[in-house]
Amino acid sequence: MSYDRLTRPLVRENGVLRPATWDEALDRAAEGFRRNIARHGPDCFAMLSCARSTNEMNYVGQKFTRVVIGTNNVDSCNRTCHAPSVAGLSAVFGSGGGTSSYQEVEDTDVIVMWGSAARNAHPIFFHHVLKGLRNGARMFAVDPRRTGTAQWADLWLGLNVGTDIPLAHAVAREIIHAGLHNEAFIARATSGFAEFRAAVEPWTLTAAEQVTGVPATAIRELAHAYARADRAQLCWTLGITEHHNATDNVRALINLALLTGHVGRYGSGLSPLRGQNNVQGGGDMGAIPNRLPGFQDILDTEVRTRFEGAWRVPIQPRYGRNLTQMLEGMAEGEVTTCYLIGENPVQSEADSLACVKRLSMLDHLVVQDIFLTKTAQMADVVLPASAAWCEAEGTFTNSERRVQRVRRALDPPGEARDDIEILCELARRLGHDWHYDGAEEVWDELRRLSPAHAGMTYRRLEDLQGIQWPCPSEDSVEPPYLHGRLWESDPVRRGRPAPFAVIPHRPPVDLLDEEYPLRLTTGRRLDSYNTGVQSSGFASPLRRGETIEMCPEDAARLGLVAGEEVRITSRRGSVVAPVYVDPALRPGLVFMTMHFPDEVDTNALTIEATCPIAGTAEFKAAAVRVERLVPQPAPQPSLRSAPQPVQAG
After folding, report:
1. Would you state the pLDDT for residue 643?
2. Considering all CA atoms of the chain, what is the largest pairwise distance in Å, rounded to the nearest integer?
3. H helix intervals, 216-350
4. Strand 74-75 and strand 45-48: pairing?
5. Are 574 and 636 in contact (CB under 8 A)?
6. Residue 642 pLDDT level (bands cut at 50, 70, 90)
7. HEC per residue, 96-162
8. Highest-confidence range of 451-455, 530-534, 640-644, by mean pLDDT?
9. Which of the residues 193, 298, 511, 545 has an alpha carbon 20 to 30 A from that of 126?
10. Rounded Cα distance, 235 and 601, in Å
């Protein structure tokens, strides 16, 4: 299915969206917010900000939520992917960004790609990996599938889904027992090592092999190579973070870096690879419920006081709702109005049918987007916005924390407007006379409030072709890696020690049994982007549509042939898709993507079990069965039950 650009505002009338003037659409949007806040208070409001829009838009969006509405209920698709990375890294180091630059993976000795199909999901970063391999680095791939990334590795560790913690613990135990841990770094820069050592002791190579499915010899080889390397990079993506215990997974990997001293030095670090162009920046700008811009804790009185002085309003001294909690609040009637900017939760959230039901319970839904997505089709007001990558001025922040300028090359089509302009128009209708003379004025306001960005003028960003945060001064730039303080001999300069974490192993929530014997894991392909809204309109010679990928052994056991349509059923829903036979998969494991939800709604199968710390769902571990189609199959659950208005005019 191909989506057309939104070019006119839409409002719902008699159950159908119709074209409207900007004044009518903005008035209706503002009136709905005002009505709900008057009835229920500001915490009935929720905003989802856009990880594909600029830093400046995200700054204004979270400011709208906190200043105009008066709540901290703002979040973004960070919750769907890398919130556990942010939670884990900030708990250990006080900062939620990856610790290294892309250049460092080219200059390192060992690269560990853990739960990361970067060749398909992060192809730009993978070019840096390939340069590292050409420069002599060894690469280890830890992944249930033998992905295109794993095919470049010296060694592939094909673990069972959901056994990352036992594997990490076994690697740690082997390093300790071989005497390869960095005792001086541990004593100087960390805390909790004795408790950690006791916790990993039961995870012998043999015990880990039985649970993870990875041969003991492979675990030992990874442990020795990582610990003996002078420099090593440990990289991960959604194979680590989309689990019900995702923050624990991240902490288990951080433990390995602390154990060996592979952090805080050039070439050694921890890199969560962010999938969307500005998901890092959205969090940095405060479009999350627990942090103000610059990743400053809302609970810090001094921080709040500084923002309150600049914004001239009080800020709630408590965390807001994250995306998962917003959806729960809709079901409970506590969240009654929502403002979604560039997000499509109807097709991106786990257990998508439950998400549709919850959104349909809202009294007032406003969607600001560039396409009439399935989520936008449920809205009371639709506001056509600019495409940030080519129709807006501002900045983006990538996975290595590099802030870069983006420039307006095209005008938005039709009546579509810049996101910041729309936000200011709504703010004025709600009693706040906001005017910004361009994106640079927004950025300069952010720089005054965020020490990490204070030295990044637009001119310096242009002259230096981007700057990594932190950059507190206009006179210098910091090293490309974070947490060098941990190597300082002076305790004052070294600061708070980085704590080891004691973490239990908890298997996936959706258990396998005779009725649901196959483990479904999900991910991305190179040819498509997320829910397909932005990529489906463009042809690709690589694209084959949605399939269920399974190994030859499982296909033969079920009597299936490539291309045959089958029904895939979980405890939540059922879909139909053709079979694709892939020898890179092991028996018992099947794979699907979320790229074609209009044809095959994979997220009708996934489970909403979420990480209690980060709120991210377990997209990577659903239990399913696969059945041959019989004549006249029963109708499958479909998002077609959601309102399906057609844009007129």
Report:
1. 40
2. 75
3. 216-228, 238-241, 246-260, 279-284, 301-311, 323-331, 345-348
4. parallel
5. yes
6. very low
7. CCCCCCHHHHHCCCEEEEECCCHHHHCHHHHHHHHHHHHCCCEEEEECCCCCCCHHHCCEEECCCCC
8. 451-455
9. 545
10. 29
